[in-house]
Each structure stands twice: as C-alpha cells, then as structure tokens.
Amino acid sequence: MISLNKFKKSFTAFVLILTLAFVGIATNSQIAIADPATTPETPTAAEVFSANCAGCHINGSNIIRRGKNLKQKALKKYGMDSIDNISNLVANGKGIMPAYKNRLSEQQIIDVSAYVLSQAETDWK
Could you give the CA distance from residue 103 to residue 106 in angstroms, rounded to a whole number? Predict the structure, then answer.
C-alpha cells in the first residue's frame, strides 16, 4: 500500500510535469514558420513613431518637458535638426528619455528620425 506522503509527492510531480507540458504546447503553438505571403509588413516610420514615441510626443509635443518638443523651432534650438543627431538621441536616450537601440532596429531609428524631421517641416499636420 502506498503511503499518503508518497502519494502527495507523486501527485505533485505529476502536476508539475503536466504543467510544464501544457506550457510547452501553448508556447510552441504560437511559433509558425515564416510564410512570405502571411508575414506582416515592416512597420512604417509613422507606425514606429506611434508605437514608441507618441506616448510622450503626440503630434510633436512633449508631455513631460513642453519646451523640448519636436517642432522645427525646438529641434533647431537644441541642435536636433538632422537625422544623425535625432538618431543618436533616439538610439541612446538622454535624461528621462529612454534609449531605443535595444528595441528598434538601426533602420527603424533612422526612419523614425527622418519622419520626425519631415513632420516638423509641416508643423505636424
């Protein structure tokens, strides 16, 4: 006859194995082979901006520090009126602005920097 203590240990091990198996199945079910016909397109610069920057810089403003906005006058004032300078800021962050070099590709950083400049030229309209 099996003791209650052995039964509890066996049952706990069974539940743990079952849980790990379930997690493995759930995780693997979300992995798919890339199919060019169904692979999502690379996000546009506007989409990258919307997803990563607009939280603080909606319509080129700055909800944290009003003077440090993305309007053309402020970009020129702070020397952020080139793709290189904006890209460096986006990649490395500064002050309370986080760095995005580990979240965005180099091309996305360049694209979103060009997007910021083009939007500033039209006053974010």
Answer: 10
